[in-house]
Every structure is written in structure tokens, then in C-alpha cells.
Design goal:
The complex is a heterodimer of chains A (382) and B (511).
Chain A lengths: L9 E6 L9 H7 L5 E5 L2 H8 L4 E7 L3 H13 L7 E4 L17 E6 L7 H7 L7 E6 L6 H17 L7 E2 L5 H8 L5 H11 L2 E2 L9 H14 L13 H9 L6 E3 L5 H20 L8 H13 L9 H20 L2 H7 L40
Parallel strand pairs in A: 1-2, 1-3, 3-4, 4-5, 5-6
Antiparallel strand pairs in A: 7-8
Chain B lengths: L11 E6 L6 H9 L4 E4 L14 H4 L8 E4 L36 H5 L9 H15 L24 H13 L4 E2 L9 E3 L3 E3 L24 H7 L3 E3 L2 E8 L5 E8 L2 E12 L3 H11 L13 E4 L2 E5 L14 E3 L14 E6 L3 H12 L4 H7 L5 E8 L8 E8 L5 E6 L4 H20 L3 E6 L2 E5 L25 E3 L14 H17 L1
Parallel strand pairs in B: 1-2, 1-10, 2-7, 3-17, 10-20
Antiparallel strand pairs in B: 4-13, 5-6, 8-9, 9-10, 11-19, 12-15, 12-18, 13-14, 14-15, 16-17
The chains are: A alpha/beta (382), B alpha/beta (511).
The structure holds flavin-adenine dinucleotide (FAD) and iron/sulfur cluster.
Chain lengths: 382, 511
């Protein structure tokens, strides 16, 4: 991630409603480098006015004001006066509180360990999915003395965040050179090549879901890593299967669905929340927080038809899980980077104008131009 | 309106809904006989050269209007089961072209189970031979099973799965042979179409054949139909049927580009496939005095067995199902009635991967590891008899689609016969794969094809159409697609559907 100098002077606009006890913003500002000027805004309107004066600024809020700060940030970004960063201290997200789907801004979220509404577990599941460039920092409570005890660390972390380049972060594997050469060759038709180029485009960490809620996308991201782990095929970033499945869910669909399930996008949303509730009930934390063994246990139950939780029935979860497996595989295996790694040349079955097909098609045969694939496995089955 | 087009307001002799295996041969026959024919096709008209082996993109040739799949053996649709476009499901079918076994016409007489067809194999044989000649079918001559026959083209080259199946079958003493395939292996020039090239073993039959080696109807019957004045209209989804005061069909309502239109006609042929034909009739409430519309929905038992081999198989190479055995049409040790045909299987990666995900149930590191063996796997598959059961049926769900039509719901459950056949086939195919040296063998329980729903028969109280496809209730309404099959029969259906289509065309001309 490229570092950049924060523009100066910087103002830290703190949403601090009158009459509500807030954190010691002054002390915190003193720990931030370079030192920002402090502006306490009693209302959202006041904060908005302060933001509009043209200076570079960052926005901060604590507790129940976090949601309002996020909404304001969203509006400011829309108005073209984006804050440089956002700081949310011990935020509390009330059930069903209105907030933007995605705030694509560097954000520091300070959580408070323990049985609190701002525990790192809760925030990781309920808030972080909305903050694709968010960083979660956790300290001991109580939250009203956070600055007193951890002001220095929080200030330092926020200083770092201020230096973060807000450019979109691309993820996903690259196509191996040999396969890229095959794609460029006359064994591939122009139309197929274009499709492959389109599909090879990177994923974005800040992908804003089109069909699912951000919370559900986060659960799906966690689940797809367990359902189809990509280690062994890619040593770097995996393909963001969840984002790609979400994109697919926002289109017309594949021509059918199980009658026992609601329409695909709804089924996914409901199934993922059912999985999450099961994780809370069985493992004491949201799905994205519980460890891999617990996630696997939950998915095994879904697969066996024994996952009982509020939401979809165990039988529905089992059907949905077959859809999930198929969607993962389909998304994975049709990615050109995967094809390259596995040595799959189905898309190189002929170009235009000459449709060559394949000449060596017998057992153990392969033409020289056909790829082998670094991650392809042979006949030995473990 | 195209040059060959007809005016909507003028009644044409015949409107045909659907241009697939059931619709196309009849459209060509009637047009050649001088009838004015309008064909309404919901899907687009494709340019074969633009077909792509990329599986997600190839879904453009799948029927993607949502279907609700229920029952104990819910079937996958979309890419697994039905196509769309001028040419119907034959654009993406596998082109496996066996003839229907004569015994399957009389299953009930033979076993007391299932139903008999209202005529026997002899009745259909001339039409079968005509279709084979007219579209171009390859296969081995002599053919080791059934009546002697000659195939016009030599079989396509055997790919790795075919070679392995030959090896396994030989070890066990099972006869196998190059499969009859609707694939031409030598160039062919057709006056109404142009040149079709020989198969180049590209493996993408299910994604659409780019050099027209695969014989469909878009490159055979439909060009003939057009040359004789048939007006084939892509992008036209039929949504309603209008009757006149005497209860005969007077016009068809369809939607083109979001606009509702009406085409007057003197006769109507439904050839929209077993789900859509039934859906249209249920939606309009027509031709259903028997309460048989939608019932006896059947599939083929389509169990597959896969294994992993030492040498590379590259299962996307070559015509996918190049080998056949008909030895299991009436196996001696059968604990079921009817029989099944077996084929070797190559498969494109996403289709195979989805099968692995759905039917093998793998996930986690085991799934990833197995996918990495793709270039070393090969499969066997069957198509087997599936007995009619009235509770397996197409009904209308409460949900509506974008056109405002109720989405169809298809309930499908295997009965004991299907389960016994699945188990038998799993055992036999596993033995063949063991004999051929496979490792990590597993079976996929799956059903394919959409059959029944408007069965033909002589009794108007137990069937929807007569033995020529004419509605018992409405004398200028005909059905000509996979829905009229009284029983599933083991053979892959396209050849029989096309033969029936030519036969129904003759009946319409004589009516
Ligand atoms: C993946 C796959 C592989 C197959 N492999 C083989 C094989 O190897 N061998 C074999 O013999 N058979 C095979 N089949 C089966 C074969 O393709 C079908 O049985 C056959 O095409 C069915 O013919 P049909 O006329 O009933 O329907 P279709 O061929 O499906 O034609 C129906 C047409 O009607 C159109 N339509 C539907 N509703 C409407 C409406 N309301 N208005 C206007 N148009 C409408 C559809 O778009 C479609 O084009 C395969 C099928 C699939 C899907
Ligand atoms: S394998 Fe042959 S018939 Fe099938 S799509 Fe390729 S060229 Fe056409």
C-alpha cells in the first residue's frame, strides 16, 4: 500500500452531541501525528458545515454516534468532500440501525474487549463488512477511559491510517505466463479471449455487494474459504469467490432453483444468516469470528442436514449447501488463472477463422502447445 | 417483417411454438408441402461461429426462465436440461443418437409395468432412417445390436474415456462399439445451408458446435423450412392461445420485444418441450379434459461413474460420448424392468466440477485436491428407462415470471425401479472402471431429460393426444415434442422426437 503525506492543515471533526459524555478528544488529537486541529461538532449539521470549509479533515465519533458519522461520511463522499479517514471509538451499532452499505474510506475502529456491544467479535461481524478499508484495534474496557489508558496507541494507529492510500485494493491471482500465451494464441477465438480477459480482471477488497448485504458477503467470504480452499493452487491471493457469486446472484439466474428454497439471492442471504445464528448459538460468536474448526463443524452440519438454527430449516440448509458448493466450483474452475494452474485447455479448442479442435485426444496424449499446469495432479490419488 | 414473412392478421395454415427437435422437422415438412408456416421461438437466433467453449457464457443457449424443482429427486435444469434458441435444445445436446430399442415400445406387454406405445418400432422405423439420412449421423457399420443398419459417416475419433471404456469392457466381456452420433466426420454441402465441416474433436458439443459438424435442426431442417417460405421468428415467446366460438384454435398470443402480439392460424402445433408445452396448456387450461396434462413427467436415469487414471485423459478433448454398449438393455441379472444404454464420458471442466460439487458432496481441501485431478479423470454414464408415475408432474407455481406467466414447478421422485436401475448401473460401471484400472471411483446419482406431460394414446381419458399427436379435445391443436412420449424408453430421445415430428407432419397434411 503506497504511503502519502496527509494534506495540512488537518482538522479532526469530532461528532460530540451536547450533554452526552464523550471521550477526551483533545488528548487523543495530541497523540495523532501530524497534530490535527480539533473541532467539536454538537450536531451532524455542524459537522457537515465544518467539513465544507475546504480544509482537509478527518471525522471521529464514539459509541452510538458511530452510525450517524458513517451516514455523514457517505454523504460527504457523495458531495465530493471526503474525509481523509474515519475514527470510530467503541462504536455501538444498534440492531437495525440505518447505516450505509459500504464506506470505502480508511477507518480505524477501536473495539472494547469483553461482553460489550463494541466487542471485537461483534464489530468484526456487524460493522467491519461495511468498512472494506477498515482496521480493527481492540483494547480493554471500560470504554469511557479508552483514551486515558490507550490514547497513545490509538493515536499512533490513526496516524498510520491517515497515511494510507485510499486507492482501490486489487486482489486475486495472476494468470501464469504460459497460459496467458495460450490465451493469446490462435487456438482461442476472439470472443472467448475477450470473455477470459474480462473474467481475469482483479477482485476488489472494497467490492460492494450487489445482491447480498455486506454482513452476508462477509460470512460468504469466510465460508467460501472453507468450502473451496485455494491453497495448493494459488500461493498468493485467492480468487474472491464470494464477490463473484454475489455478482452472479444479481443477474437473471441459472434457470432453476430448488422449490424448497426461496429465490437464489434470498436463499443465500437467509442461509448465511442462519449459519451465523448457528455459530452464535453453538460456538458463542459470529461465523466470521469463530475459528476454522468451528466453521467446518457448522458447514458439516449444513452438509449433513443437521444444522438447526433460527432461519432456514436444516433440510433447506442442506439444499443451499449443494448450491454453494456448485457455485464455488463453477466460479473457481472457470477463472483463467485456475485453468492455467490446472492445465485445463477447454477454452483453447479452436480459433477463428480456423477451428482447429484437438488432434491428440487419446489416452496419455497431448500436443506440444497444450498447457500442463503447475498445480495439476496426476493419477495418484491420496 | 422478413421477405418470407406473413402478416400477423392473416391466418396462416400452421403456427408452431418451438423450433427444437419436435418442431423443426415438421416445420420443414409442412413448408415443403406448400403450407404457410410461422414458427415462434422464444430464444434468439445464434451464429454458430460465435459459440464459445466458455461454459458460463455458453449459458446463452440454455433455457434460463426459472423453474422450481421439487420432489425427492429434484432435477437440475438450466445447463443440465434444456436449451433455447432457433434449433432448440439440439444446439447444446450431446448428439448421442441411438435408435430406440423395439422392446421399449411394448414395455407393459413385456413386463406388466410402465405403458406400451400406441404403435410399435416398425411404424417408426422409416421415419428414423429418414432422419438419420437427412441430418447426418455417424456410427459403426455393422452395428452389433438391433436391426442391421448402415451409418453414412465413420465414427468420430475415440477420445481417452472411450479408449478406457473399451479396455474395461473387453476385460469383462461386455460388447462395446463406437456410438451412433449426430456428428459428421466428413464435409457435407447442403443446398439450403451451405458447407458443414467435419468434427475436429473440440469437445464442446454442449456449448454449441462452431463448425456445424454436430447435426442439429438449425443446420438441417430449419434452413430447408426457410428456403420453402417458413417464417421463423426468434425472440417470440408464446403466452396464450385464443379459441374461436367453436372451441378451435384461432390465434396465438406471443410477446416479442416486450410487446404482445397475435398471430392468427388454422392449426397450432406445440413443440416447446415437455415442461413448457405443459405449462402453456395448464396456463390456458386447454386440451386437458383428461387431467393428464403435466402428469407422468419422466426423466432418464442418468447415473454416472467417474474414476482417476494414471495417464492423462484430458476429458475435454474429443466428441464426449464416443463409445456405447447396448448390452444392458435387458441384463440377465436385472432387478428392474426395462434397460439402459451406457456411454463413455468426457466432460467440460465446469460441468464436471458442478457434478462433483453436487453429486459427490465433496468440500474443503478434499474438493480442491480432487479438482486438481481433472486432466486424469474419465467417466461412464447411462440413460435408462424411467417409469411413468402420475405424481411426478409439472404444475404451475404461485410465482410469476417476467412475462407474467406462472413459473412451472416440476416434482420428480425416483420409484423403486429407478433406484434399482441406478444401483445396478453403479455396480456395472464400477466394475468396468475397476477393470480399466481406475482409482478413486465414485458414482453420481442424476437424472436427465424432460419427458412426458402430454402423453399420446388411444384413450382420450388417459392421454392428451392421439397416436399422431393430435389433441383429443381440440382438433386443430397438435403436440409434437418430448412431452407426448407415453414411456421414457432408454434411448436418448432426439432421434425418436424428430422421427415423430416427420410423422405428425404427414398426419397434419392428411387432416
Ligand atoms: C445438455 C443436454 C444434452 C442432451 N444430449 C442428448 C443426446 O446426446 N442425445 C439425444 O438424443 N438427446 C439429447 N438431449 C435431449 C434432446 O436435446 C431433447 O430431448 C430434445 O431437444 C427435446 O426436443 P423438444 O422439441 O421436446 O424440445 P426442445 O428441443 O428443447 O425445443 C423446445 C423449443 O421451444 C422453445 N420454447 C419453449 N417455450 C416456448 C414458448 N412459450 N414460446 C416460444 N418458444 C418456446 C424453446 O426455446 C426451445 O427452443 C440433450 C439435452 C440436453 C439439454
Ligand atoms: S466435438 Fe465435433 S461435433 Fe462436438 S462441438 Fe466439437 S467439432 Fe462439433
Amino acid at each position: 500500500m503506497a504511503a502519502s503525506e496527509p494534506a495540512l492543515p488537518l482538522t479532526l471533526i469530532c461528532l460530540q452531541p451536547a450533554g452526552r459524555r464523550g471521550p477526551d478528544w483533545g488528548t487523543l488529537a495530541a497523540h495523532i501525528s501530524p497534530n490535527p486541529m480539533l473541532h467539536l461538532a454538537e450536531t451532524v449539521e455542524a459537522a457537515r458545515a465544518a467539513a465544507a470549509n475546504g480544509d482537509a479533515f478527518a471525522l471521529a465519533a464514539a459509541g452510538a454516534d458511530a452510525a450517524a458519522a458513517m451516514i455523514l461520511t457517505d454523504k460527504l463522499i457523495e458531495a465530493g468532500i471526503a474525509p481523509r479517514a474515519l475514527l470510530l471509538l467503541a462504536p455501538v451499532m444498534a440492531q437495525g440501525a440505518a447505516r450505509p452499505d459500504m464506506v470505502g474510506l480508511p477507518t480505524l475502529v477501536v473495539a472494547v474487549h469483553g461482553e460489550t456491544p463494541s466487542s471485537p467479535e461483534t464489530l468484526r461481524a456487524r460493522l467491519m463488512p461495511h468498512l472494506p478499508y477498515g482496521r480493527l484495534l481492540a483494547h480493554d474496557g471500560p470504554d469511557d477511559t479508552l483514551i486515558l489508558r490507550h490514547g497513545k496507541a490509538i493515536g499512533a494507529a490513526f496516524s498510520e491510517i491517515l497515511m494510507t492510500d485510499t486507492g482501490p485494493i486489487e486482489t486475486g491471482p495472476a494468470i501464469d505466463p504460459a497460459f496467458a500465451a495460450l490465451l493469446a494464441s490462435d487456438h482461442v477465438s476472439q470472443r472467448t479471449r475477450e470473455v477470459m480477459e474480462q473474467r481475469a480482471k482483479p477482485d476488489f477488497q472494497a467490492y460492494a455487494p450487489k445482491a447480498l448485504t455486506p454482513e452476508a458477503l462477509a460470512i460468504l467470504r469466510a465460508a467460501t474459504l472453507r468450502v473451496l480452499p485455494q491453497e495448493g493452487v494459488f500461493d498468493t491471493d485467492p480468487i474472491d469467490l464470494a464477490a463473484r457469486i454475489d455478482t452472479r446472484l444479481a443477474t437473471t439466474g441459472d434457470g432453476w432453483r430448488f422449490a424448497e428454497l426461496p429465490p437464489d439471492a434470498q436463499a443465500y442471504e437467509q442461509a448465511l444468516h442462519t449459519l451465523d445464528r448457528a455459530a452464535m448459538a453453538r460456538n458463542g460468536g459470529p461465523f466470521v469470528v469463530v475459528d476454522a474448526a468451528a466453521q467446518d463443524d457448522l458447514l458439516t452440519r449444513a452438509s449433513d442436514g443437521t444444522l438447526e438454527a433460527e432461519g432456514l430449516s436444516a433440510a433447506q440448509m442442506q439444499l443451499w449447501f449443494t448450491d454453494l458448493r456448485a457455485d464455488c466450483v463453477q466460479t473457481f474452475i472457470t477463472h483463467p488463472a485456475t485453468m492455467g494452474r490446472l492445465g485445463i485447455d477447454s477454452i483453447a479448442n479452436g480459433g477463428d477463422p480456423v477451428h482447429q479442435g484437438f488432434a491428440e485426444i487419446g489416452l496419455g496424449q497431448r500436443a506440444d502447445w497444450e498447457p500442463t499446469g503447475r498445480a495439476s495432479l496426476g493419477g495418484d490419488v491420496a | 417483417m422478413s421477405a418470407a414473412g406473413f402478416d400477423n392478421r392473416e391466418a396462416v395454415d400452421v403456427v408452431v411454438i418451438g423450433t427444437g427437435a419436435g418442431g423443426a422437422p415438421l416445420i420443414a415438412e409442412l413448408a415443403q408441402a406448400g403450407r404457410s408456416v410461422v414458427a415462434l421461438e422464444a430464444g434468439p437466433s445464434f451464429e454458430p461461429k460465435r459459440f464459445t467453449p466458455d461454459e458460463p457464457t455458453a449459458s446463452e443457449i440454455y433455457w434460463l426462465h426459472e423453474r422450481l424443482s421439487g420432489g425427492e429427486t429434484p432435477q437440475a435444469f438450466g445447463g443440465n436440461n434444456s436449451g433455447t434458441g432457433v434449433g432448440g435444445s439440439l444446439l447444446h445436446y450431446g448428439a448421442f443418437m441411438p435408435r430406440m430399442d423395439p422392446r421399449d415400445f411394448t414395455l407393459h406387454s413385456e413386463t406388466g409395468k410402465g405403458v406400451d406405445w400406441p404403435f410399435g418400432a416398425d411404424e417408426l422405423m422409416p421415419w428414423i432412417a429418414r432422419v438419420e439420412a437427412e441430418i447426418g449421423v455417424s456410427g459403426p457399420t455393422p452395428y452389433p445390436w438391433g436391426v442391421p443398419r448402415t451409418y453414412a459417416y465413420a465414427p468420430p475419433t475415440r477420445n481417452a474415456p472411450a479408449q478406457i471404456m473399451a479396455r474395461g469392457c473387453e476385460t469383462l466381456g461386455i460388447t462395446c462399439k463406437d456410438a451412433p452420433a449426430a456428428v459428421i466426420t466428413a464435409e457435407r454441402d447442403q443446398p439450403e445451408f451451405g458447407v458443414r465441416h467435419a468434427c475436429v474433436n473440440c469437445g464442446a458439443c454442449h456449448q454449441g458446435c462452431r463448425n456445424d459438424a454436430k447435426s442439429g435442426v438449425h443446420n438441417t431442417y430449419l434452413p430447408v423450412a426457410r428456403a420453402h417460405g417458413a417464417d421463423i421468428r426468434p425472440g417470440c415467446m408464446a403466452t396464450g392461445i385464443v379459441l374461436d366460438g367453436r372451441g378451435r384454435v384461432e390465434a396465438v398470443i406471443y410477446v416479442e420485444g416486450g410487446v404482445e402480439k397475435r398471430q392468427a392460424c388454422r392449426a397450432l402445433v406445440l413443440a416447446a418441450g415437455a415442461v413448457e408445452t405443459a405449462r402453456l396448456l395448464l396456463h390456458t387450461g386447454l386440451a386437458n379434459s383428461s387431467d393428464q396434462v403435466g402428469r407422468n413427467y419422466m426423466t432418464h436415469v442418468s447415473t454416472q461413474v467417474w474414476g482417476t487414471f494414471d495417464e492423462e485423459t484430458r476429458p475435454n478433448h474429443g466428441y464426449p460420448s464416443a463409445l456405447i454398449t447396448e448390452d444392458m438393455m435387458r441384463p440377465a441379472d436385472a432387478d428392474f424392468v426395462g434397460g439402459y444404454l451406457m456411454q463413455s464420458l468426457g466432460m467440460m471442466p465446469a460441468t464436471w466440477g458442478s457434478l462433483v460439487a453436487r453429486a459427490r458432496g465433496l468440500w474443503g481441501p478434499g474438493l480442491t485436491r480432487y479438482l486438481r485431478h481433472y486432466n486424469h479423470v474419465a467417466g461412464l454414464g447411462i440413460n435408462g428407462e424411467c417409469l411413468p408415475r402420475p405424481e411426478n408432474r409439472v404444475t404451475l407455481s404461485a410465482e410469476r415470471d417476467a412475462m407474467g406467466l406462472p413459473k412451472p414447478r416440476i416434482d420428480h421422485s425416483y420409484g423403486p425401479n429407478e433406484i434399482a436401475m441406478h444401483n445396478h448401473a453403479t455396480r456395472v460401471m464400477t466394475r468396468i472402471w475397476e477393470a480399466a484400472g481406475a482409482r478413486d471411483i465414485w458414482a453420481a446419482d442424476r437424472a436427465a431429460h424432460m419427458i412426458g406431460t402430454c402423453r399420446m394414446g388411444t384413450d382420450a381419458s388417459t392421454s392428451v393426444v392421439d397416436p399422431h399427436g393430435r389433441s383429443h379435445d381440440i382438433d386443430n391443436l397438435w403436440i409434437c415434442d418430448h412431452s407426448i412420449f407415453p414411456s421414457a424408453a432408454a434411448a436418448n430421445p432426439a432421434l425418436t422426437i424428430m422421427a415423430l415430428s416427420l410423422r405428425t407432419a404427414q398426419a397434419i397434411q392428411q387432416s
